[in-house]
From TrEMBL:
Transmembrane segments: 6-24, 36-55
Stated name of the protein: EamA-like transporter family protein
Organism of derivation: Thermodesulfobium acidiphilum
Keywords of this entry: Membrane, Transmembrane, Transmembrane helix
Amino acid sequence: MKKHIGQLYLALAVSIWGGIYVMSKMVLTVIQRLELVWLRYLVALVTLIIVGFLLTNPGI
C-alpha cells in the first residue's frame, strides 16, 4: 500500500481538478465569478485550518 500512495494522491488530485471545471460551469449559472472565487478560498482556508489543527494535535 505504501508503495502506491503517490499514485493514489495523483488520482485524487486529477479527480478534484477535473471536477472543479464541471462544478464551476454549473455554479456560474447561479452565482457570479468573483463570489465563486471567494467561496473557493474560504473552503480552502477552512480545510487548511482543520488539517493544521489535526497535525499539531495528533491526540484528537
